[in-house]
Specification:
0% strand; 115 residues; mainly alpha; globular
Length: 115
């Protein structure tokens, strides 16, 4: 019976892994509150600055910044208002512009049918 009391007294705090990833990511050291900024350009600029400054990232700076932004959007999910989600998606477009990745991809050629 004493063992049961110890378990009850030892309350466990639930911690979400997604919050830990955002805080302690090996890829980027993010400025606090970067995802709550009002201007998509400022969000993109902050992510770019963090990605270029980081020496622990495994991918190129653009991929690291975009991955962290996408991760945040996906994990926030239904808790994001439409306006905030739109702002964060606009930040993706701004990131592409900052990294000069805004060129359209070439369309793949389909194999021609032989007659």
């Amino acid at each position: 019976m004493a063992a049961k009391k110890k378990r009850k007294a030892k309350k466990r705090k639930t911690k979400k892994w997604s919050g830990r990833v955002t805080r302690e990511s090996d890829a980027l050291d993010l400025k606090k509150g970067v995802f709550t900024l009002k201007d998509p350009k400022k969000i993109a600029a902050s992510l770019k600055r963090s990605a270029e400054k980081s020496h622990r990232r495994k991918a190129d700076p653009y991929r690291s910044a975009l991955s962290m932004l996408t991760f945040y959007i996906n994990r926030a999910g239904k808790n994001l208002s439409a306006a905030r989600k739109r702002r964060l998606n606009d930040a993706k477009d701004e990131l592409k512009k900052l990294f000069h990745k805004d060129k359209p991809k070439a369309k793949s050629r389909k194999a021609k049918k032989r007659s």
